Amino acid sequence: MPWPPSEAVAGESSRADQALVRQHSPWSIKSVIRFVIGGELIVPEHAWIWTAQLTLPSRRGAHMPCMQEILETLTNLGWEGRDLFAVEMALEESLTNAIRHGNRLDESKHVDVECRASRERFWLRVKDEGNGFRPQMVPDCTADENLECPGGRGLALINAYMTSVEYNECGNCVTLEKIRSTATD
Amino acid sequence: MATHRRIKANQSGQVTVVTFNDSKIIDEQEIQEFGQELYDLVEREGRKKIILNFGNVEFLSSAALGKLIGFDKRVKQHGAELMLSNIRPEIYEVFAITKLTKLFEIKDDEADALAAI
Questions:
Q1: Contact assignment for A148 to B61 by CB distance below 8 Å
Q2: Who has the most CB within 10 Å: A4, A16, A137, B7?
């Protein structure tokens, strides 16, 4: 059976779909978006084909398996080239920031990850248990005087590659969205 | 010549041409290792002309960029020269976004870099 199944887009959510998602998602999925509730078709804000939630430990490299899983899912959804590269960059930088800078590698703290994907869009929310930060206070790494400074490049890359980037008030939760360029061409 | 795990260093006349063993430079431990191996080229082995050939590199994180910046500083401290080459478009864009194209001298391919260094 091709993946993702086209009926998932049409809203005929089924046990088979969920089994298929589980098969492709060995890590802890807590929910799968449903489009049919009580026999009535609910039109969501965007018809996500795949969603997942998981919790990561604050350990170096803990994000790698889920990152690989998300990239494989997007590849199966037809994502490729610069769009896929952009998502890989955003995943790497946002998850590493949460583990390393947010939770400071404190393994008693966790990183909550929520992800949604379709053929046209990618959406990600990453929340850590740290004190947060103010993105506007991070020095501009692209300024000539800061080119050799150690930080700020991860945020610059996320901003450059994603269609939208939003932080919560205290700065310990970032929400990213990427609209696939080929979908808007 | 020292044994390296993350890089290959070949001598071309007076120039050391470095290629990377990993196509994705993400893992923190690997970045630490590749950084140390680069530092060793100038600090322990005394190499004075170095080309980093990125032909094999498909992805690198901001942590890897940070390590390259640290290497550039060491190179300058030791009076050595550094050039980058064979950077594929996706990776070049990472350098362009972060304006590191201003910091590093980048050539299209290894031959151009060898001619210029």
A1: no
A2: A4
Residues of B in contact with A151 (CB under 8 A): 66
For residue B91, what are the CA distances in angstroms to A111, B15, B74, B110? 28, 24, 23, 16
Do the Cβ atoms of A103 and A128 come closer than 8 Å?
yes
What would the two tokens of residue A57 be?
Answer: 């430990």
CATH number where B26 lies: 3.30.750.24
The number of folded domains in chain A is: 1
Closest to A21 (Cα-Cα) out of A51, A47, A42, A45: A51
Report ipTM (2 d.p.): 0.93
**From the CA of A60, how many Å to the nearest CA of chain B?**
7
Closest residue of chain B to A60, computed from CA coordinates: B28
Burial tier of B43 (Cβ tally within 10 Å: 0-12, 13-18, 19+) = middle
**Cβ(A31)–Cβ(A22) under 8 Å?**
no
Residue B85 pLDDT > 60, yes or no? yes
In angstroms, what separates the C-alpha of B66 from chain A's closest C-alpha?
6
